[in-house]
Structures are given as structure tokens and as C-alpha cells.
Design a protein that fits this description.
disordered N terminus; 10 helices; mainly alpha
Amino acid sequence: MSAPLKIDSGSIGHHGCLAFAVTATALSLIIIGVQAWDKGASTSWGWVWTAFGMFTVLVVHGLFAVCQPTGWGMRLAMHLTWWICVCFVASGHVGFFLSLHQQAGAQRADAIKPVASITQPARTLLQVRKDQESVRNALVSAESIACSDDCGALRLRIARLKNRTKVLEAEENEYLRWQDAKDRLDARRDNALEDPVMARLADWLGVTMERISLMMGLLFTMILEGIGALCWMQVVRQRDSRVALTVTSQVTGPVTQPVTSGPTLNTSADTHGATSQTVAYLDTQITKVKAAVDANEIRPTVDAIRRFLRCGQARARSVRAAVIQA
């Protein structure tokens, strides 16, 4: 019978958090690159601006994960630096969001086609009404003439002027129908420029579309940057926890000795003795640091532990993780 499949939930969580962190950072870098390209990244200053934007993204996502200052002054400086970088990245992300919103609205507006049966008149309304005025004046003049000899020609002229008046009225009505259809089409396109959900949200909150678009852009930025920063912090903490578990197992695990029928070599005894000394030394360091932390003599940070033990940063990280797990 085959052995049951064992799934390491801790490993799944670590890899999932790492995937979220990498995705958020990559997406943020792509947005910065696209925004810089739209502003003219082909120039030399554009490339510098793009590189600086990508650097600020990396600072926002990784500053709290890799830096652990001890003094309050350094902590304050780190937080101020982080918020300044967030504001810079947010300006680029909000610009990208607003540009994307405008492009989507333009595509929705272009998808609305005018009615094919209604075409634009050849003449403007001003030209038609100017002709109407001249025809009315000519008709009034013709009707005021007293008929004496050639009454047939006068009646024919009056009839033609009246027909011309009707034609101009029909042309005016046609232009007004086209103008009304154009106004409705423009109104539909103007409504299509605005996102329907955001438009209803703006009406519900009683704010303008410009303000709600800015708010949504800031929300989009905080979600993306917040997920990136938190996931990278969690990835580093999970790595420290794995190191701590390894060190703890080395310190507390049983030491087994091989059973042989004959005499053992001196090299094996020397190796076992060196391993025992290393384990004992680690145990001593962890106990010493835990006692100092409990007595509030030092803070449980990598830099404080490194100065307290006068050791390397890797050893300090391992000891700190073991102390936290204890």
C-alpha cells in the first residue's frame, strides 16, 4: 500500500505569499513603466525618471522587510522615507488609473454609432433662415403690388414664393430633427465617457466624478502597494521562522551515537565533539539573549542581538528567530 500524500501547509503558505508579493511588485513596476512611457520615456530624462520610479516601488515594497532600525530616530526616518516614496508612487499609479479610465470611456463612446437614416443637412440653420427672411420679404412685396395689366405673371410669382417658403420650412424642420438626433447622440456619448458604477457612486456620495475618480485611483494604489509591502514582510518572517526551527531542532534534538562492535576512529569522536560544542554554544547564545530580552536589557531586533553577541548578521537572525519561537 502506498504511503499517504503529505502536504506541507507551511510551505504552501510561504509560496503563496511569495507569489502575491512578486505579482504585486511586478504589476507596480509595469504600471510605473507604462506611465513613464506615455510621458515620453524615450528621452534620456524619461529613462532616468522611469528608473527612479521603479526604485521607489522597490523601496515601498521592501523597506520594512529588510530594514529593522533600533533607535526611534532611525524608525522615524524610515517611516517618513516610506511615506514619501508611497506618495511618489501613488502619483504615478493615480495618473495611470485616470488615463485608463479615460481610454475606456473613449472606447465606449466610440462604440455608439449615429443613426444612418439621419444625415447632416447640406446647409446650416443660419443660411436657411436667411433665405426664409429674404423670401418672406419678396412675398410681402409681391402681394402688395396692385394688379393692373399682367396679373398672371404676378400670381405665378406669388405662388413660386409661397412654394419656396414651404421648401425652406421643410429644410428647417429637417435640420432641427438632425440637431435633436445629434444632441441625443452627444448626450449618450457623454454618459458613456463615465463609468456607470462610478457615476452612481458619485451620485450616492454627492461628489463630482473627478473627485470619485481620484479616490478610486488612491484606493487602487493603496491596495496594490499595501499587499506588496505586507507580503514581502511576511515572506521574510517566514524565512526567519524556518531558520529558527532549524536552529531549535539542532539545539534540542537528541544526539545519537552509532553502535559498533569494534573500536571507533578518533576522527568520528572529534567530529561528534565539535558538533556538541557548536550546539551547546548556540544554546548558550539563545538562552543569554532570551534572558536579556526578558529583562528589557536589549530589544529583540537583529541589530541589537548582533551588537549584544558580537556576531554576524546571519547568526543574529537565527538567534532572534529562535528567541521569538521560544
